[in-house]
């Protein structure tokens, strides 16, 4: 179906969708074709109720080396609100996620980046738009922009300080230096580091636990809560949480959550 992206099912019940950037000879450098295919693939797996977790990774020895230098484009200032980036089925209440890569946080499912090598420029942007980042010990990160005469694009100046703090964000953006996996873990850029050979197995084990044992309805609501939180006051976040808790208690997943705990059996969550 795609020429530069692949989609495969994984996990005990094939409830994990593994989306792979597939230009290994170019370290998965982004092209216009790959960008369009990635968006289509991510939105397709988000619509699929049989998919509960999405893993994003790269083929070969790299995650994504950034934009293909032969396809660099000059984005007009109005691009952020261009019609092609709007989502008719947006699952997130905020207009802030109606942007070029805002479909990542607007997805209903958790997205885990399995970073198997270089993540530079747009590769770093994609990783930051994911909910979690697992890295192989061979992973390396760089914003790259300052060394190309560019700026912090696609909202990375908003995302990066919220992940690593303002000081580390300034360092990584200003210097555009290479950050290896151990430092990335220390500053919070990634959530865990494992041997390169164990990266996909570790990521899929974690994703499988989410897919099999956790309410997809709960994750759907909590993901929205986490991504909306930076725009809210404590009072607003609390009021919305109380309303969501009321709805949760009426849900099928709450009934099943109590039942499987009392009956000491595996959960059978419906997502409703």
From TrEMBL:
<feature type="transmembrane region" description="Helical">
    <location>
        <begin position="110"/>
        <end position="129"/>
    </location>
</feature>
<dbReference type="InterPro" id="IPR029045">
    <property type="entry name" value="ClpP/crotonase-like_dom_sf"/>
</dbReference>
<keyword id="KW-0472">Membrane</keyword>
<keyword id="KW-0456">Lyase</keyword>
<dbReference type="InterPro" id="IPR001753">
    <property type="entry name" value="Enoyl-CoA_hydra/iso"/>
</dbReference>
<keyword id="KW-1133">Transmembrane helix</keyword>
<dbReference type="GO" id="GO:0006635">
    <property type="term" value="P:fatty acid beta-oxidation"/>
</dbReference>
<protein>
    <submittedName>
        <fullName>Enoyl-CoA hydratase</fullName>
        <ecNumber>4.2.1.17</ecNumber>
    </submittedName>
</protein>
<keyword id="KW-0812">Transmembrane</keyword>
<dbReference type="Pfam" id="PF00378">
    <property type="entry name" value="ECH_1"/>
</dbReference>
<dbReference type="GO" id="GO:0004300">
    <property type="term" value="F:enoyl-CoA hydratase activity"/>
</dbReference>
